[in-house]
Design a protein that fits this description.
mainly alpha, about 0% strand, extended, mitochondrion inner membrane, ATP_synth_f6_sf_mt, Putative mitochondrial atp synthase coupling factor 6, proton transmembrane transporter activity
Length: about 140
C-alpha cells in the first residue's frame, strides 16, 4: 500500500517535470520571428567582431570622442594630482604601515603616533561644546 502511494507520487512528479521541460524546450527550439530581436542580436554579433579585431579602446570612435576622453583624463589628473606619466585609469596601490608602539609599562601613559591630528582627540572642552549645541538645538525644535 505504501509502495503504491510512492509510485503514484513519483508518477505525478514525473509527469509535471516532463510538462515543464516540454514547455521550456518548445520556446527554446522556436526560431525568433521578431525582427527587432533579430536586429539586436545581429548588432551584438557585429560589435563582438569589431571589438575582437581592433585593439583600440573604443569601437567605431571618431577623433572627437578620443579627444574628449583624453581631455577628461587630463582633468582628472589635474584635479586628483596625477603626474604626466601616471595612468589615471589604473586603480591606485595603497601601502599601509602599522605604527610602531613601544612596550607599555604599568603607570606609563600610552603614546599616540605623531600622525594622529589633535582634532580627532575628544577633550572636555569639545564635549561641553557638543552638549551645549545639542541643548540649544533641542530648544529650537521644541520652541
Amino acid at each position: 500500500m505504501a509502495l503504491n502511494g510512492k509510485l503514484h507520487a513519483l508518477a505525478t512528479q514525473c509527469i509535471s517535470h516532463c510538462r515543464r521541460n516540454y514547455g521550456i524546450s518548445a520556446v527554446l527550439m522556436q526560431k525568433s520571428l521578431d525582427p527587432v530581436q533579430k536586429l539586436f542580436v545581429d548588432k551584438l554579433r557585429e560589435y563582438a567582431q569589431k571589438s575582437k579585431s581592433k585593439s583600440e579602446l573604443f569601437v567605431d570612435a571618431d577623433e572627437k570622442i578620443k579627444m574628449e576622453y583624453n581631455d577628461e583624463l587630463k582633468k582628472a589628473a589635474v584635479q586628483f594630482g596625477g603626474d604626466k606619466g601616471s595612468d589615471m585609469t589604473k586603480f591606485p596601490d595603497f601601502q599601509f604601515e602599522d605604527p610602531q608602539f613601544g612596550p607599555h609599562q604599568p603607570g606609563e601613559r600610552s603614546k599616540l603616533p605623531a600622525e594622529v591630528p589633535t582634532a580627532t582627540r575628544r577633550t572636555t572642552t569639545n564635549l561641553k561644546q557638543i552638549k551645549m549645541y545639542r541643548h540649544s538645538t533641542a530648544k529650537i525644535k521644541d520652541g
